[in-house]
Amino acid sequence: MVSSTEYGSHTWDLMLTVDHQQVEQEIRLQVTGDLHVGGLMLKLVEKIKIAQDWSDYAFWWEQKKCWLLKTHWTLDKCGVQADAKLIFTTQHKMLRLRLPNMKTVRLKVSFSSMVFRAVSDICKMLNIRRSEELSLLKQSEGTLKKKKKKDKNSKEPATEDILNLCNSPVSSGSPANPGLYSKTMTPIYDPVSGSPASSTVTWFSDGSLTEQNCSILALSHPTCSPEMLAEMYQPRTLADKAKLNAGWLDSSRSLMEQGVLEDDQLLLRFKYYTFFDLNPKYDVVRINQIYEQARWAILLEEIDCTEEEMLIFAALQAQYHVSKLSLSSETQDSTCESEVDEVEAALSNLEVTLEGGNKSNILEDITDIPKLADNLKLVRPKKLALKAIKTYWFVFRDTSISYFKNKESAQGEPIEKLNLKGCEVVPDVNVAAKKFGIKLLIPVADGMNEVYLRCDNEDQYARWMAACVLASKGRTMADSSYQPEVQKILSFLQMKNWTMCSQDASEPENVDMKPECFVSPRYTKKFKSKQLTARILEAHQNVSQMSLVEAKLRFIQAWQSLPEFGLSYYIVRFKGSKKDDVLGVSYNRLIRIDMATGDPITTWRFSNMKQWNVNWEIRQVAIEFDQNVSIAFTCLSADCKIIHEYIGGYIFLSTRSKDHNETLDEELFHKLTGGQE
């Protein structure tokens, strides 16, 4: 029997599940609708009668897949009724993260914070600056099929070596060690290996990273067998590459809301390819992880490169491998002061930024608009695979190229004027064959107009290529990044320009090298092991004097020079189209690509974008550009929220500045990427 006073109080029973080893699974409490969430937690803890710190516990609403974190809200306001299944559980749980260097770390992560905040906390623990460039990726089913089939016929796999960092849980909102992000700190790193000196290990992180763990995160371990590569997912087509980007987690929702369970494994990857303010003094872990992500992308052929470029990447990896071996066999007698001087001297000009270099000659006179003028060959593709090649006098001014019959006629009207703003610039280079070509894909009303330019030598190519790259972004040669761009291109060409003189190269027999570890499986099938070793050693001559950190930075720069660098692919269906296309998302543009041929159809620059939105009912992304250009598409290979977040994320990252405080405007990020579902 229930008394009249109890009956009139509108109480009702609520069944709560407690996620705790020493407590019964379910506890029944009598509650009212005006009881706030904090009061419910207090009643439950009093009922449990276990003295401990319950501050990390919160209610997880199983049916609605959401956390009840606003403790001042009443149950009525939250919509909680008698049939609600609430679980009283910890907000921080164990998570396994596979890093870009293929090492797995196990640490405590907030399952109730938005993924953007959780990644920020993870990066503080791992000593990776600029956490906004990274995110968490769940491997899609398509990338696991190959591995699962092989596992059926194989023996029980060996236990994976996991770096356990669970002794120091990452607490959301906790102040990070100020040394991690302080501009006044001067950490001391070994000038060759880049690893922190033992005296700075206490500075290096919040405490859970020992000197040994620092080495695991900051140093590369390049040895990987062809058998290991064969077991990993290797995309063959654009559709395969689209599968790689399907599993990005929503940065505006928590891990628990997206179905991630305790001790699950996720991938921590650089999602946005805008590596801002890379500094060898502070970013030893960050540089190594970027290098590793680039290295695996090349080995697994996630990004295309020529045979010549593959050998350069192999040579840089080999240099890292050889330098590391020689470092371990020699004693280091230099003082800390000399180490700092050496690392600053060796790497002062290698800082990798979004625009590819440090600004120099700030006070240089740019009142005169620079221009290029020279004889170049124009190659126009014609029907039946024939090409017309003819020499013209070319003049590059502002962001346009004009060409004339000869130098004398340059005062008159040009034969044609090409506006390069918003175009695609693709290198077509073979240094050994003395081929220095520039492929321009210029947007026109019905697609892309292809134009090929042929240069006579490396110097001419570097100057014209740099001008084209800047013009595609809407910048002229007066921009301070022009000369660093020229030097970067020349540096890359110099690495490709190795001599074929055999006496300069080390004998393959005398070098402890497994060439299969440094190139993709396609090249291990094409060449015998000795041939491959000899070719890598030939390419190695131009990089043999580099230190470990310098080799990694050069590798990153070479990776950034590839035509497909920074493109994330998705299969989409454009409004009004009857066939599927591939959409490439980059830091400054969207590219529509023909799925069958791989040829770009149209390019749209973010700088010309007026607005974008998502129709969440039909999952369609709509974008408006200048000159009344508008597009709309649905995403078939992933949720449209991922593309929406990519666009907003890149726009957010473009607002960063070294002059600003390094604290992130998290609210702005969520405004640009969150969407309104």
From TrEMBL:
Domain (PH) ranges: 377-473
BP GO annotations: cell-matrix adhesion; integrin-mediated signaling pathway
Database matches in Gene3D superfamilies: Phosphatidylinositol 3-kinase Catalytic Subunit, Chain A, domain 1 (3.10.20.90), Pleckstrin-homology domain (PH domain)/Phosphotyrosine-binding domain (PTB) (2.30.29.30)
Family under the similarity heading: Belongs to the kindlin family.
Subcellular location: Cell junction; Cell projection
Region (Disordered): 145-167
Keywords annotated in UniProt: Cell adhesion, Cell junction, Cell projection
Protein's UniProt name: FERM1 protein
Gene Ontology CC terms, in alphabetical order: cell projection; focal adhesion
GO molecular function: integrin binding
InterPro entries, A to Z: Band_41_domain, FERM_2, FERM_central, FERM_CS, Kindlin/fermitin, Kindlin_2_N, PH-like_dom_sf, PH_domain
Annotated organism of origin: Peucedramus taeniatus
Keyword 4Fe-4S: no
